[in-house]
Design a protein that fits this description.
The complex is a heterodimer of chains A (397) and B (299).
Chain A: E1 2-6, H1 8-19, E2 23-25, H2 33-44, E3 51-53, H3 58-71, E4 75-80, H4 81-86, H5 88-96, E5 102-107, H6 121-124, E6 132-135, H7 139-154, E7 162-167, E8 176-180, H8 183-190, E9 206-207, H9 217-246, E10 254-257, E11 264-268, H10 272-285, E12 290-295, E13 297-299, H11 303-312, E14 316-320, H12 330-339, E15 347-351, H13 361-377, E16 384-386
Parallel strand pairs in A: 2-3, 2-4, 4-5, 5-7, 6-7, 11-12, 11-14, 14-15, 15-16
Antiparallel strand pairs in A: 1-8, 6-13, 10-12
Helix pairs in contact in A: 1-2, 1-7, 3-5, 7-9, 10-13, 11-12
Chain B: H1 23-35, E1 39-43, E2 64-66, H2 72-85, E3 92-98, H3 100-104, H4 107-116, E4 121-126, H5 166-171, E5 177-182, H6 186-197, E6 203-208, H7 212-215, H8 222-231, E7 237-241, E8 244-249, H9 257-261, H10 272-297
Parallel strand pairs in B: 1-2, 1-3, 3-4, 4-6, 5-6
Antiparallel strand pairs in B: 5-7, 7-8
Helix pairs in contact in B: 1-6, 2-4
Classes of the chains: A alpha/beta (397), B alpha/beta (299).
């Protein structure tokens, strides 16, 4: 193990490097670009043995990964924002073809207006594509989660692709100390890629041919649904296995922080977690019983963990860094859906930090205070609230 | 007796689901005969996404990756590089796409793949419209044609723009091999694919594949119409090897295009003046091709 100072994007590149993909498709987009640049340098210097396809779009990047993975090799690509949404068609293709591709996604706002800063609408809009979706909190978790994504996805009862998210700039361009694991340990952990099927001359198999309504289309989709459900246990198992081998333990699908006796618990995704932990420490030191749950995997959705959280507390505050126009944001609506019939505690959606607007400790402190008040009163003042809008005195800090 | 140059091996079993008299089906049969067993195919949305048959039945004897409409160029790039990473450099990697998937929606991915120089075959079977969706105009639809999106009507809204020349676009990519072929000249088709097999890099081959359903002619006329396309200079057969043009079939006395057009319902509405205009265009294109052949062969 080597300690290095790495940005989130360098960590992603290292995660890919030690996982030994044989084909990498590369197309630039801010703020992802330094991932594929770092990989290009690894390959150019002979430190990584992979075919590097400089495709002419993200759409082609995913198409090339699909075709290469279907030919029998591990693949990797990375993207952000417009690049990810351009891929949308092929994301559904990749999971439908049951190819455990791994992709780094640097969460960035969608235009218009142009913004390169963090916002999770890009990946939230891919919720229904059949990909596992993992949101990282720090650079170490970015690197480790890429390795684990290959391990989990490649299991023959799973066979699903994974996107590993990092918040733009907050992780992608910020350096932290990161333990880069030894190649041999990763090799032992991942093993050689063992595809469940592949294109091979002499074996005239067809992948993706026409199916009539009475054919097994629906059964293929049902098998995918079962695989995504089975992935929950596989994620819990793999994080444990990873911990035993690498000495870093990740808490399955949801990380909990001081939830044991909390009057109110905040649910977040990504880097909001690390800011919120500081605020929890501060408020706890002042005797306020609050807790935090950081959802690591949004797909598969951790409905059991969220039901268990609701049993421990009197109020859930759900922070989303994106919005679903029409009703609430995804983490909120999905959590609420999971809790229906299981819990009557008040739940509120806080929409924050869109387009990279800073989510500061002071702002989160106010949100926690609002949550505690709702916890005391036993009901929400409103279901959904946008926090930190210009000129909104309620949230000025 | 002349020696038979068409391989006897068959890689297409009976039972395909194409229309009667489908030119694209004949095209695939010849292409596979020329390429042989050591081949991986990739096919996007097009007639050929349906022709192999409904799951789990399939008429083709080579492995096949179906892909989305616009990604053939990227898909064959991915297959090629994965095979190379595994040390399987001898496998033919072939994209087989229609004219809509090549000239229009798939042009970007094709251009990218050609420019990157992968060792691949890209075969455009050109039936001159979106036939799988039911005869809509593509960039490769010829001047004057009726389609369901150029239906004529009171305003004579037919396809008046010239056919996009994808072969010439590919020549502009400086790839080592570009050729046009058609099913009425199978020896020419097979010889060109075999020549391409000997060349490393991107190979682009455009196959004119008449479509009785979309061109509005009797299914028994597919080969005849395919031959007339060459004899009238509507669709010249040539190859461009590392930039050098060679016209492989030169009609001594080109027939008037009227003979070609009059066999097809899609041109039925054309007036003599309009046919004359198209004839002029065809003559100019032919002259231009002769010039290209001449100047690229000069020392």
């Amino acid at each position: 193990m080597v300690k290095m100072i790495l940005t989130g994007n360098e960590s992603a590149a290292w995660g890919a490097r030690v996982s030994r993909p044989k084909v990498v498709a590369a197309y630039p987009i801010t703020p992802q670009t330094s991932i594929i640049e770092t990989i290009a340098e690894f390959i150019a210097n002979g430190e990584m043995d992979a075919r590097y396809i400089r495709v002419e779009s993200e759409h082609s990047a995913m198409a090339a990964c699909i075709a290469a993975q279907n030919t029998g090799v591990r693949t990797f690509t990375a993207t952000s924002s417009h690049g990810l949404t351009l891929m949308h068609e092929l994301l559904i293709w990749a999971s439908g073809a049951r190819l455990p591709i791994v992709m780094s996604v640097v969460n960035r706002a969608m235009a218009p207006p142009w913004s390169v800063w963090t916002d999770q609408l890009d990946s939230m809009a891919q919720r229904d594509t059949g990909w596992m979706q993992m949101y990282a909190e720090n650079n170490q978790e970015v690197l480790d989660s890429i390795i684990m994504a290959y391990k989990i996805g490649e299991k023959h009862h799973i066979l699903l692709p994974t996107m590993v998210m990092e918040d733009a700039f907050i992780l992608s361009h910020t350096s932290e100390g990161v333990d880069v694991p030894e190649q041999k340990t990763v090799d032992d952990f991942l093993g050689e890629y063992d595809p469940a099927f592949k294109l091979e001359p002499g074996d005239p198999a067809g992948f993706g041919s026409l199916i009539m309504p009475e054919g097994p289309y629906m059964e293929f989709r049902y098998k995918m649904a079962l695989a995504m459900d089975a992935a929950r246990e596989e994620i819990r198992k793999t994080t444990k296995e990873f911990g035993e081998l690498f000495g870093r333990y990740y808490p399955g699908l949801v990380e909990e922080y001081h939830t044991e006796d909390a009057d109110a618990i905040m649910l977040v995704l990504g880097t909001i977690g690390s800011t919120a932990k500081d605020v929890v420490d501060y408020l706890r030191s002042k005797g306020k019983k609050i807790g935090l749950a950081r959802v690591r995997y949004f797909r598969p959705f951790p409905y059991e963990e969220i039901r268990a959280l609701a049993k421990k507390t009197n109020m859930l505050g759900i922070v989303d860094r994106s919005y679903t126009f029409g009703y609430g944001a995804n983490l909120y609506t999905e959590s609420k859906g999971a809790l229906y019939g299981h819990s009557d505690i008040p739940i509120k959606n806080y929409v924050m930090g869109l387009g990279g607007r800073d989510i500061t400790p002071a702002l989160l402190e106010k949100v926690f205070e609002d949550m505690l008040q709702i916890s005391r009163e036993g009901q929400v003042d409103r279901e959904i609230e946008w926090v930190g809008l210009q000129g909104d005195k309620r949230w000025s800090v | 007796m002349r020696k038979l140059t068409i391989p006897e091996e068959e890689y297409m079993l009976p039972g395909h689901t194409a229309c009667l008299g489908c030119g694209a089906t004949i095209a695939m049969r010849y292409v596979l005969k020329a390429l042989g067993k050591n081949t991986i195919l990739s096919i996007p949305a097009c007639c050929w996404a349906v022709i192999p048959g409904v799951y789990p039945r399939r008429t083709l004897q080579v492995p096949l990756l179906y892909t989305a409409f616009e990604v053939t160029g990227a898909a064959i790039s991915g297959i090629r590089e994965a095979l190379n990473a595994m040390g399987k450099e001898d496998v033919n990697v072939v994209g087989f796409a229609g004219d809509g998937g090549t000239a229009d929606i798939g042009l970007q991915a094709l251009s990218g793949a050609a420019e990157r120089g992968h060792n691949i075959f890209y075969i455009m079977y050109d039936n001159e419209a979106y036939m799988n969706t039911g005869i809509q105009r593509s960039g490769s639809t010829p001047m004057g044609a009726w389609t369901t999106t150029t239906p004529g009507g009171k305003r004579r809204m037919y396809k008046w723009e010239p056919k996009k020349s994808v072969a010439e676009i590919m020549v502009a990519h400086h790839i080592p091999y570009v050729a046009t072929v058609t099913i009425a000249y199978p020896e020419d088709l097979i010889a060109k694919i075999k020549r391409a097999k000997e060349i490393k890099g991107p190979k682009f081959i455009q196959i004119l594949s008449p479509c009785p359903t979309g061109w509005r002619y009797s299914p028994d006329k597919t080969v005849e119409i395919s031959r007339l396309a060459v004899q009238t200079n509507m669709f010249p057969l040539y190859e461009v090897v590392k930039g050098t043009y060679r016209i492989t079939v030169k009609p001594k006395n080109p027939k008037p295009i009227k003979e070609y057009l009059r066999l097809q319902g899609r041109f039925r509405h054309l007036t003599d003046e309009e046919i004359e205009r198209i004839q002029k265009q065809v003559d100019e294109n032919w002259k231009e091709l002769l010039k290209k052949e001449k100047c690229t062969n000069e020392e």
